[in-house]
Design a protein that fits this description.
Helices cover 55% and strands 14% of the residues. The chain is of the alpha+beta class. It has a four-stranded antiparallel β-sheet. It has a three-stranded mixed β-sheet with strand order 3-8-9. The two termini are 76 Å apart. The model is unreliable at 3-14, 16-21 and 350-359 (pLDDT under 50).
Amino acid sequence: MPDVQSPWTGLAIPRKGLEREPLLRSPLLHFVLLGTLIYVVQSMRSYEPEVSVVEVRRSEIDERLESYRQQMGRAPTEQESRAIENQVIENAIWLEQAYALGLHQYDTVVHQRLLLNMRFLEGEDGPAPSVEEGGPSEADLIARAIELGMDRSDTVVQRRLIDRVQAILRGSVRAREIQDQTLTDHYEATTDKWREPALLDLSHVYFSRDRRGANTTGDATSALALLSAHDENVDKAISSGDPFLAGHRLRGASPNRIVARLGPAFADGVAGAPVETWFGPVESAFGQHLVWIHERIQSRIPPLAEIRKRVVEDWIENESRKTLREHIEKRRTQVQVRILEDGVAADGNQSPSEANQSPAT
C-alpha cells in the first residue's frame, strides 16, 4: 500500500501511521493522559514522609526527678532537670528503634523476664498449671505478656532493649578497619592516659601506735639513729620493730596501692624519698615507720607497639560513644516527641478535660 504525501511538509507518511492517527487525536485519550499527569504531579507535591511519633509521659520524667532528689538530698538544678528529661526522651527513642527492629520478639533475656513476670502473675492465686495439665506454653505466656504491655512497662526489659539496639551500633564500630595512622593519632592525642605511675619496691620497720602510745614517734626516731650508725641489713632492721599484719615489704607498688595499704600520709611521705637508705619516721594510719626503698621505677609512657591492644579498645570505645551520640541526635530530628501529661488514654487519645500535650524540644 503506497505512502501518502503530507500536505504540510511534503514528506511521505506511511499509510500505517495514518491508520493510528484517529486514536492519537482522540479527546478521550487526551483527557485520560492529562488527568494522569495532574494526579502524578499533585501526588508528588503533597507527599510527605511519615514521621514517627515517640510519646513520653510526664509522670516518668517526674519520677526520675524525684529519684534524683532522694539520692542527692536536694532538688536538681535547671540544667540537671533538662539533662534528666533529655535522658528519658532519648531512652524512649532508643526503645522505639528496638521495637521497630523487633528485638523484643526474639531476645532471650527479654523472654525470660516476661516469663518470670507472667508466672508470678499467673501464680498469685496458686501454682499455675503446666502445659501437660492444659496450662499455657512459654510462647503463649510471652505473647500474653506483650499483649498486656509488659514489654513496654518493665524497666529491666527496657534497659535490655536499649542495650541491644546500642550494641548493634557498637558492633558496627568494632567491625571497622582501623588504619595505622588513625591509631597513631589517637595514641598521641591521649598520651596522658597511657602514662604508667612511678613504682616503688620498699621495706619498712613498723612502730605500733596502739602498742607504744605516746612513745611511738620517739622510739622510731631512736631506731633510725641506730640503723644509720650500724648499717643494719633490712631483715634484721625489720625485726627490731613491731609485727605488721599486711607485711613489711611492698614490691612494684603504685601510689594507689601504697595508699590502699598504708594510707595517703604514708604515700606522700615516700613519694620523693631517697633510694637505698633508711629514712623516717613516716606516719601512717597505724603508727610510725622507718622506710628503705630498694628501687624506684620512674613514671613512663609505653610505646604504642607495647600497648596497641589497649589503644585499639580505647579508640573503639571513644568512636562508639561518638557514634551513639551522633545517631541519637540525628534520630531526634527525624521523630516527633510528645510529652504526655497525666490522663492520656491507653490508646493515646486525650480526654477533653486533659491538659494539653506539649511537644518536646
